[in-house]
């Protein structure tokens, strides 16, 4: 089968690799119809998180079940399925509590696993013609319709981007009426803003420096904040002045909720060619209101081969802890417990209440991956979210 593999820093290739096959009785093999490229793939593409050359990339698949192992009970050949990024068993103590990204049975001696992901288990990636799905009864989420129908792009985003955007709003406890600032207008930040609006947030600001991405933020009903125009904290405080707060509430001129949808490869605001992994947490600590909530969905890597000046090879950072303590801010982190939200968000899509595909800007064949990765990595040519159709 053909697959997108990591070849070297800033180089992916489409290669022939052995077909995905049934290895365990509870596996299925899925023929992929759509497979999205994610900002997480770029951390590997940039040579940062220790991907091994030859690694098949991709963790955002939608497809049709082609082959079913003998002990699979609920999935049949021909089922159209979306496969959540984080592989999980469905029955360990963490899975039973809905903490699927911390499954205890998918990575011996550790916890949590994902497809096509350096350091996250042995599972081959989904930017390929075929994907082996372990623990198939747990990991296949059935969706109606036919491959290539009008919901193809909405459904593929249920594998990761929409659920992670939603997860960010859960981490940050977004409620109706909330004021929200999202840093990063990639697919994750945009879909976090979109999720916040679905939940009834009153004001949602989205911070970035890329014109097409800021335009998308406006398109979904958020207020774009352009880093190129100066300190985003001051810009949001100024915008908030127009709508509130009431006299006597000036200390609340920030936001109640902050979301980091950038991660450790954040750019320095004053020197955007240089990374600064503490830029976003620093800005959010200044912006957040007393007793506010922060949700950190951007990835922070425990292994960074080329850390930025403020960074460290093991991911240690110096952050304004005292400011967060003094304000009484709650900070919650982490990978998406996808399976908690996949069905809920699938049904929002099927009912027509959500159209996450608003963030999809590009399509290609597997062969187009090298070009799409290069443009996405430069955040150029309007690429926000690209979907490969093998
Ligand atoms: N928690 C999870 O389970 C999970 C799942 C998927 C993705 N992620 C992570 O979420 C992050 C975003 O993913 P994406 O696909 O949207 O990536 P992306 O690279 O397309 O988006 C990141 C955006 O951040 C912007 N940015 C950079 N520095 C900034 C700064 N200082 N302030 C504001 N914006 C800044 C960039 O211009 C870019 O538009 C990545 O770190 C990715 O690995 C986490
Ligand atoms: Zn992803
Ligand atoms: Zn488990």
Automatic annotation (TrEMBL):
Signal peptide, first to last residue: none
Cofactor requirements of the protein: Zn(2+)
Alphabetical list of SUPFAM superfamilies matching this protein: GroES-like, NAD(P)-binding Rossmann-fold domains
InterPro entries, A to Z: ADH-like_N (IPR013154), GroES-like_sf (IPR011032), NAD(P)-bd_dom_sf (IPR036291)
Protein keywords: Metal-binding, NAD, Zinc
Gene3D superfamilies associated with the record: Medium-chain alcohol dehydrogenases, catalytic domain, NAD(P)-binding Rossmann-like Domain
PANTHER family per the UniProt record, alphabetical: GLUTATHIONE-INDEPENDENT FORMALDEHYDE DEHYDROGENASE, ZINC-TYPE ALCOHOL DEHYDROGENASE-LIKE
Family: Belongs to the zinc-containing alcohol dehydrogenase family.
Name of the featured protein: Glutathione-independent formaldehyde dehydrogenase
């Amino acid at each position: 089968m053909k697959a997108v593999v990591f070849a070297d820093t800033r180089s992916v290739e489409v290669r022939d690799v052995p077909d995905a096959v049934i290895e365990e009785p509870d596996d299925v093999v899925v023929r992929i119809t759509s497979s999205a490229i994610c900002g997480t793939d770029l951390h590997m593409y940039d040579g940062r998180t220790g991907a091994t050359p030859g690694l098949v990339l991709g963790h955002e698949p939608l497809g049709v079940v082609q082959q079913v192992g003998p002990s699979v009970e609920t999935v049949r050949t021909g089922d159209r399925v979306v496969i959540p990024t984080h592989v999980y068993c469905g029955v360990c103590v963490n899975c039973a509590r809905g903490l699927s990204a911390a499954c205890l049975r998918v990575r011996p001696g550790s916890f949590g696993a994902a497809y096509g992901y350096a350091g996250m288990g042995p599972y081959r990636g989904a930017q390929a013609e075929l994907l082996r799905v372990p623990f198939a009864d747990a990991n296949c989420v059935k969706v109606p319709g036919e491959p290539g129908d009008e919901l193809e792009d909405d459904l593929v985003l249920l594998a990761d981007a929409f659920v992670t955007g939603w997860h960010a709003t859960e981490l940050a406890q977004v409620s109706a009426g909330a004021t929200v600032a999202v840093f990063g207008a990639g697919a994750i930040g945009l879909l976090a803003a979109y999720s916040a609006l679905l939940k009834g947030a009153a004001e949602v600001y989205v911070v970035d420096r890329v014109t097409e991405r800021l335009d998308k933020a406006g398109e979904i009903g958020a207020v774009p904040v352009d880093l190129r125009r100066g300190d985003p904290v001051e810009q949001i405080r100024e915008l908030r002045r127009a709508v509130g707060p009431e006299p006597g509430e000036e200390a609340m001129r920030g936001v109640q909720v902050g979301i980091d949808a950038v991660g450790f490869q954040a750019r320095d605001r004053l020197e955007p060619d240089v990374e600064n992994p503490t830029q976003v947490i620093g800005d959010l600590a200044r912006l957040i209101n007393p007793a506010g909530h922060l949700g950190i969905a951007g990835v922070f890597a425990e292994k960074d081969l080329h850390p930025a000046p403020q960074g460290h090879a093991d991911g240690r950072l110096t952050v304004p802890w005292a400011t967060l303590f003094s304000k009484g801010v709650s900070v919650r982190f982490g990978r998406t417990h996808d399976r908690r939200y996949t069905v809920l968000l699938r049904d929002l899509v099927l009912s027509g209440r959500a159209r996450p595909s608003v963030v999809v800007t590009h399509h290609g064949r597997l062969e187009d991956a090298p070009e799409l990765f290069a443009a996405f990595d430069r955040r150029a040519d309007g690429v926000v979210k690209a979907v490969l159709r093998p």
